[in-house]
Amino acid sequence: MVKLTKNELKKQKDALKRFQRYLPTLQLKKQQLQMVIRQVEQEHQNLVHEKERLRRDLMQWIGVFNDGIDLTPYVEIERLRTSTGNIAGIDIPVFEELRFADTRWDLVGMPPWVDGGVEALRSVLRLDAQLKVLKEQLRLLGDELRVTTQRVNLFEKVKIPETKENIRMIRIYLGDQQTAAVVRGKIAKRNLTKAS
To answer: Per-residue pLDDT for 117 more than 80?
Structure first.
């Protein structure tokens, strides 16, 4: 319940100004997040298509040249390096590189297709790592978009209308009080005039 005083009226007006000043910033952040999410989703989709193409090519190679050779020992991951980017005030991981251990194989004893097969498998693993980082970006951006949308709705649908209604109620009450004071003053003056 709001107090029906001039001080409360000023407090409500100040709050309304603050809400109206903050709302456009939130709306801009929401738009920026939506735009970045669309870009990341498009990049994710492109990488998925690229990964599928590489996987098909790799399967064709292995199907044609497979001599029972397992390529996985030659694609040992040494480390995944990411950095941190900032979008609309959100820290998100950014893929930098996927480094593989320097593994050697017998160039004489292995068929010649192994070089290309290992490189293709490394490319698939690199795309997997990029996709994993993009999924984390989407998760973080989606969480922030949800929170920002809730705040926008809070300001647009609750705080601003509530504050405007409080200001309206206080003004009506103060106007009624002022009118009553004027009427009381006239009655008192008229009574004084009759008495004298």
So the answer is: no
